[in-house]
Amino acid sequence: MSSEAAFIPLSVPDLQGREWELIKDCLDTGWVSSVGAYVDRFEKSLAEQAGTSYAVATSSGTAALHVALLVAGVKPGDLVLVPSMTFIAPVNAITYVGAVPVFMDAEPRHWQMDVGLMEIFLTEECVFRADGLFHKDSGARVAALLPVHVLGHPVDMEHLMKLARTFEIPVIEDATESLGSLYHGKPTGGLGHVGCFSFNGNKIITTGGGGMLVTENADWAKRAKYLTTQAKDDPVEYIHGEIGYNYRLTNLQAAMGCAQMERLARMVAQRRQIRERYFNSLRELPGLTFQEEAPNVTSNFWLSTLLVDEKKCSISARALRQKLSAERIDSRPLWQPIHQSPAYRRSGWVGAAACPVAERLFDQALSLPSTSSLSEKDVDRVLRAIRYALEV
Ligand SMILES: *Cc1c(COP(=O)(O)O)cnc(C)c1O
Question: Is the CB of residue 206 below 6 angstroms from any atom belonging to ligand 1?
Answer without folding.
Answer: no
